[in-house]
Specification:
The complex is a heterotrimer of chains A (about 325), B (about 475) and C (about 425). With about 325 residues, chain A is of the alpha/beta class. Chain A has eleven helices and ten strands. The chains are: A alpha/beta (about 325), B mainly alpha (about 475), C mainly alpha (about 425). At the B-C interface, helix 2, helix 6, helix 8, helix 9 and helix 10 of B face helix 1, helix 8, helix 9, helix 10 and helix 11 of C.
Chain lengths: ~325, ~475, ~425
């Protein structure tokens, strides 16, 4: 399955991965002649042929889908963060971050290691509460409700906000039991057949059903890495969350498994609000509609993915994208 | 006289060291020697000391047996006729007589005059043996020194030789650990097989009657003993069950609380408490069980019994009035408390081995802490916990002092915790402490019991360690 | 549950209801954990409290001032030790009180029971030192018998029926009278710490057992620590990593878990029966305990050695040091704190072991104080066992006191180990 690479509306990049061409200028500097319709005007400075050997991208008019990924329709703001800071004891990890996360879309958080992306992600489902000495200030609202309010139970919050971790962590139980865990503890189903239905639906949505339908009661840990990660996604989906947080979900997987997961993310975003932390800028570019760039605990820049990757406003963003650091 | 030997050997070794060092320096003759003079000195010293030490150790180990045989061989007739236990007492008194102290026992007229003579003779034998060993050691040291000096020259790889000796010494030390196991198995097997030649194995393992008597004199009536150990196994098992019923839940929950719920303040108090509990000697637990818990439980059950008498549960009431201090429940409960820190610390290790990612995954799903522990952590930790419990069971089976002081001597085949039972370990102690003739089936049965105990605990330990090992590898 | 079946509000309500139950379960679960810890803490407090309560009375005792008329008719100058001095003292005391005695001397015999047999030895010593005292009256301060002492401590009460008491009413009345007349002194029970074991509780002390235990631990330490550390060095640094060394490791782990009584059987069969070493001596006890402590020391030393980072070893080797030099000049010194801590804790455990000692003969009554490792001696744990079995009531408090002494030694040793660990531990 081929992934269409990053394209700018003007088709100038033609499938080049910005990381492949570390030259300044060319692909990322603001160009005077930006064609708002994304027509390919043929200029290919600094760009390279797409890796899959395809010719340069057809003009926008014959491929309206190209705009879907780059700044396609997104839902209303699902999570609004204002002046969020996180402290681990005395050390401050996040400095006054304010960000809006839209629903029914994928938001990518990028930045070099240790810049606070995962910390920020974990504030949404209050997983920082499990770390002794962690303190969160600022306001985070989901659908208008303050997530950190005392009246909001983290247990219920986490049923609405699912999480997928870097290393797949299925429980040492059967595949069925893994997916059924969430519905069972929250009491979401009434009967065994209902639960069976939920398990099947979740596995189907995660794209795993066909592979495991005949061995639902074998251990979840017996699957391959990519399958385990999809199992974990199915587990998260089973409680019908509104938001799915993904913390570098593909970094422990091989490229083929990664590709499948990215496909899955693309399907999932039609239903859920997805926030993904990733080290790979290519992945961010492939998968997300919005991107936020973090550096040393601060939010540097945010915008639609194509803007960030083609036309960043901040020099630091530019430096990171062109591979000068990180 | 023999006190002179150790200082003499030390002096010889020191001399060898200095002499070797000087010789090495002198013999260097301008060439660059392989090793430094100190190392040559060490070489000489080791060759002096090692043979002597070897002789001394051999003497220490064997002289007892050799002396025993020599004494027995030359003993006068009346003494030879004495039974072994009496003979030991005779020679003890003979030693006292020679030292001018009063003898402990009155002796028959035909034996009395021999006391001094035998005492002198034994002393003579001892002296000869000591002198012989000492002389042999000195000779060995001298020979070794001669050899070493003949070898000292620039080309001698003294450092390597010395290091070879050092590694050899290290190896010998680790051999001691292996030899201990061999020794345990050998000594148990030796005497246990003698026992099983007297009492068949099937009677021992499956017989239900335990009254170990043997004839003191051949003509004693009613002397055949019954050596069916099944009641002992039952008693051991019962007390072990009660102990596990106390230790397993309390220990597990304590471990869960400490690793998942407790804050640093609680941990700072509770961990030392558990360590102290683990360090209290079992004889103290036994004292506590015998003098506090036993009477308390008895009074408690008697009270209940008194209230029940005359009512519908009259039979039960009558029974409860008769329970004694030494009921199995007492020993089992105290043993369980003794095992709590053991179970708790093992379980703590096991629970901490479960990776944090599993906990994170469960919390991220919106599970409460208790749900995470009971539905994710404990199933994941189950094999490890099973191994820990097996180790605790093995400990309970082998425990001696608590049961010796708090449980009884009545061999009864029962599973009722309010009965008095006896265990394998109690019987071993009873059989071997007391006036016993050593070769009788009665005392040999202690070795049969010991062998059984060793085998059972060994199997439990090996299985437990295997399980825990496999469990740990899963998460590494 | 598909998207269609429950809308968000109804779902929230259902989950909310269930949430209350889940939190209730959470609270119960947490409570069980607290209860478990509570049981452990409560038991420890109960144990220590009870021992203290029973034992503290043993630290003081009562003596009485008696005047003994050394009747020349009853003292054999050639053998002064044989005279019945207690009888003379009792008769004298009765005479002073004006109490008449029966022809069978029942009264004085009853009074005599209130004095300790020590009185006889004290009087005899006086007479032997100065035979001229015969015919005169001497004043002695002698301990009371154990039953009298118990009464004065409140352990024997007049309320119990006379048949179940060890002192009859008359004797109790005499004791009260002696007390009223100021003849009774309360003082620290020095005998407990300065004397060896005795069949008379009032004269029994722990010194013999303490010395015996100390000698035994000396033997154990001298044997187990060097052999254990060197064995661990070999197994960790020099032994090739093959199946045999794996087997040895399994073997050592198993040895650490073998019941202590099996070691006692080994000691009996090997050291006493085959090597004919003296029974009940600290030498044999020390040997057996050394074998028991060996696996623990090996395991502790190995883990300390493992904790030293390989970079240290590599640096030494790269400078040209041989393997032996690396281990003994670099690795072992760095591992020393852990090794020492492990060794001290092993010794503390060995101090408390009782079962093997019973089998090698330390259950016998040893009155003296051992002067060498091959003389018969007692040991603290076996003393506790013997005293616990004793029938005299007065031994109860002394057993508890002996336990306190034992626990004190163990606390000191463990404290030393902890201090060592804190001061010298390195965190790599």
């Amino acid at each position: 399955m081929k992934f269409p690479f990053l394209r700018a509306p003007d088709g100038r990049f033609g499938g080049a991965d910005p990381m492949d061409a570390p030259r300044m200028g060319g692909q990322v500097l603001p160009q005077a002649r930006v064609n708002p319709n994304g027509l390919d005007d043929g200029s290919d400075e600094g760009g390279r042929a797409p890796n899959d050997g395809e010719p340069a991208l057809p003009p926008t008019t014959s491929a309206p889908l190209t705009t879907d990924r780059a700044g396609g329709p997104v839902g209303p703001t699902k999570i609004a963060a204002r002046d969020v800071s996180v402290f681990y004891g005395e050390k401050q990890a996040l400095f006054d971050v304010s960000l809006d996360i839209p629903d029914k879309a994928v938001m990518a958080l990028i930045g070099p290691s240790g810049c606070g992306k995962s910390t920020f992600l974990r504030t949404f489902n209050r997983m920082n509460d499990t770390i002794p000495g962690a303190r969160v200030t600022g306001r985070i609202e989901m659908d208008g409700e303050d997530v950190n309010a005392r009246s909001l139970d983290p247990v219920l919050l986490r049923a609405r906000v699912g999480m997928v971790f870097q290393k797949p962590n299925p429980f040492p139980k059967s595949i069925y039991e893994n997916v059924a865990y969430g519905p069972k503890i929250h009491g979401l189903t009434g009967s065994k057949s209902e639960l069976d239905g939920v398990v099947e639906t979740s596995l189907r949505r995660a794209g795993l059903w066909d592979e495991v339908a005949d061995r639902l009661h074998s251990p979840g840990t017996g699957l391959s890495g990519g399958q385990q990660q999809r199992l974990v996604i199915a587990r998260a989906i089973a409680v019908n969350p509104e938001v799915i947080l993904m913390d570098e979900p593909c970094s422990a997987l091989d490229p083929i498994a990664t590709a499948r997961i990215e496909e899955l993310i693309d399907e999932l975003r039609e239903r859920y609000c997805i926030v993904i932390v990733t080290h790979s800028m290519a992945q961010a570019a492939r998968v997300s509609q919005r991107t936020a760039f973090f550096h040393l605990g601060r939010l540097v820049e945010t915008g639609s993915t194509e803007e960030i990757f083609t036309n960043p406003r901040d020099q630091r963003t530019l430096d990171y994208i062109t591979g000068r650091f990180g | 006289m023999s006190w002179i030997v150790p200082p003499l050997l030390i002096a010889l070794a020191a001399l060898a060291f200095w002499g070797g060092r000087r010789a090495a320096a002198r013999r260097a003759e301008g060439q660059t020697p392989h090793s430094r003079p100190t190392q040559h000195g060490l070489y000489a010293m080791i060759w002096t000391a090692a043979p002597a030490l070897g002789v001394l150790i051999a003497a220490l180990t064997l002289s007892g047996a050799v002396e025993h045989r020599l004494v027995q061989a030359g003993a006068p007739e009346p003494v030879q006729r004495l039974e072994p236990f009496a003979r030991d007492a005779f020679y003890a008194d003979a030693a006292r007589a020679v030292e001018g102290r009063r003898t402990q026992q009155p002796w028959a007229a035909d034996i009395q005059p021999w006391l001094r003579a035998e005492g002198e003779r034994v002393r003579g034998i001892e002296r000869t043996l000591q002198l012989g060993a000492g002389a042999l050691a000195v000779v060995a040291a001298a020979l070794g020194a001669l050899f070493a000096f003949s070898q000292i020259r620039p080309g001698l790889r003294a450092r390597n030789r010395v290091e070879g000796w050092i590694v050899g010494l290290l190896f010998a030390c680790s051999a001691v650990a292996v030899l201990t196991t061999v020794g345990i198995i050998a000594s148990l097997l030796f005497d246990a097989t003698r026992f099983f030649s007297l009492v068949p194995l099937t009677e021992f393992l499956f017989g239900t009657q335990w009254s170990p008597q043997t004839a003191i004199r051949a003509d004693q009536v009613g002397s055949s003993g019954a050596f069916g150990a099944l009641p002992l196994f039952a008693g051991t098992f019962l007390i072990m069950l009660i102990a596990m019923a106390v230790a397993a839940p309390v220990g597990l929950f304590a471990a869960i609380y400490l690793s998942e719920y407790a804050g640093p303040a609680t941990r700072a108090i509770v961990k030392p408490v558990l360590e102290i509990l683990a360090g209290v000697p079992t004889v103290v637990y036994g004292f506590f069980a015998a003098l506090t818990v036993g009477p308390a439980f008895r009074v408690f059950f008697n009270e209940i019994g008194a209230r029940l008498v005359g009512g519908p549960l009259d039979g039960l009431g009558q029974y409860l009035l008769l329970v004694q201090n030494q009921m199995a429940l007492v020993a089992g409960a105290v043993m369980g408390i003794m095992l709590i820190p053991f179970v708790s610390s093992l379980s703590d290790d096991i629970i901490n081995a479960v990776p944090q990612s599993l906990r994170d995954g469960s919390y991220a799903m919106g599970a409460t802490k208790s749900e995470t522990v009971s539905k994710v952590l404990m199933p994941a930790a189950l094999p490890g916990v099973a191994g820990a419990l097996l180790l605790a069971m093995s400990r309970a089976i082998g425990e001696t002092m608590i049961v010796t002081m708090a449980a009884g001597l009545a061999a009864r085949l029962t599973l009722n915790p309010l009965d008095t039972v006896t265990t394998v370990t109690v019987q071993i102690v009873t059989l071997l402490t007391g006036d016993q003739e050593f070769d009788s089936a009665k005392t040999l049965s202690a070795f049969g019991l010991g062998l059984t105990l060793f085998v059972v605990t060994l199997v439990l330990n090996i299985v437990a360690q295997q399980i825990v090992q496999t469990y740990r590898q899963q998460y590494d | 549950m598909t998207d269609a079946s429950l809308d968000t509000a109804a779902r929230k309500a259902a989950m909310g209801r269930r949430l209350k139950r889940r939190y209730a379960k959470e609270r119960r679960f947490r409570l069980y954990g607290l209860l478990a810890i509570g049981v452990a803490v409560a038991f420890l407090l109960l144990l220590l409290g009870r021992i203290f309560e029973q034992g503290h009375t043993a630290f003081y005792t009562h003596s009485t001032t008696v005047q003994v008329f050394l009747d020349p008719a009853r003292i054999d100058r050639a053998y002064p030790q044989g005279a019945n001095y207690e009888q003379m003292a009792a008769e004298g005391q009765l005479a002073r009180w004006g109490v008449a005695d029966t022809p069978q001397l029942t009264e004085s015999r009853a009074l005599k029971q209130l004095y300790s047999s020590e009185l006889r030895f004290m009087a005899a010593d006086r007479v032997i030192a100065d035979p001229a005292l015969i015919g005169r009256t001497v004043t002695l301060t002698a301990p009371l018998s154990d039953d009298a002492d118990l009464y004065l401590k409140g352990e024997i009460s007049k309320a119990t029926p006379a048949a179940q008491r060890r002192l009859n009413d008359e004797q109790i009345a005499w004791l009260d009278r002696m007390k009223a007349e100021g003849l009774i002194k309360t003082h620290v029970n020095g005998a407990l710490f300065t004397r060896g074991d005795s069949s008379e509780p009032e004269l029994a002390g722990v010194l013999g057992a303490v010395v015996g235990s100390a000698l035994m631990l000396l033997v154990t330490a001298l044997l187990a620590i060097p052999i254990g550390v060197l064995a661990a060095v070999y197994l960790e640094e020099f032994a090739p990593k093959n199946r045999i060394t794996d087997l040895i490791e399994v073997n050592i782990n198993n040895l650490a878990a073998v019941p202590s009584i099996v070691y006692g059987l080994l000691g009996l069969a090997l050291f006493i029966n085959w090597m004919q070493l003296p029974r009940s001596s600290p030498l044999v006890g020390g040997l057996v305990l050394a074998l028991m402590a060996l696996p623990t020391i090996i395991i502790a030393t190995r883990s300390s050695l493992k904790a030293v980072p390989p970079s240290i070893r590599e640096a030494a080797l790269a400078l040209g040091a041989s393997k032996t030099q690396t281990v003994f000049q670099h690795v072992l010194p760095l591992a020393m704190p852990g090794v020492m801590t492990g060794a001290i804790i092993s010794m503390a455990h060995a101090l408390g072991e009782t079962a093997p000692l019973l089998l090698i003969g330390m259950i016998s009554f040893v009155p003296g104080i051992a002067a060498a490792v091959d003389e018969p001696a007692g040991a603290l744990p076996s003393l506790i066992y013997i005293w616990e079995n004793a029938s005299e009531r007065a031994f109860h408090e002394r057993t508890a006191a002996a336990i306190m002494v034992l626990l004190a030694f163990m606390i000191v040793m463990n404290a030393v180990a902890i201090v060592l660990r804190r001061r010298f531990e390195r965190r790599w």
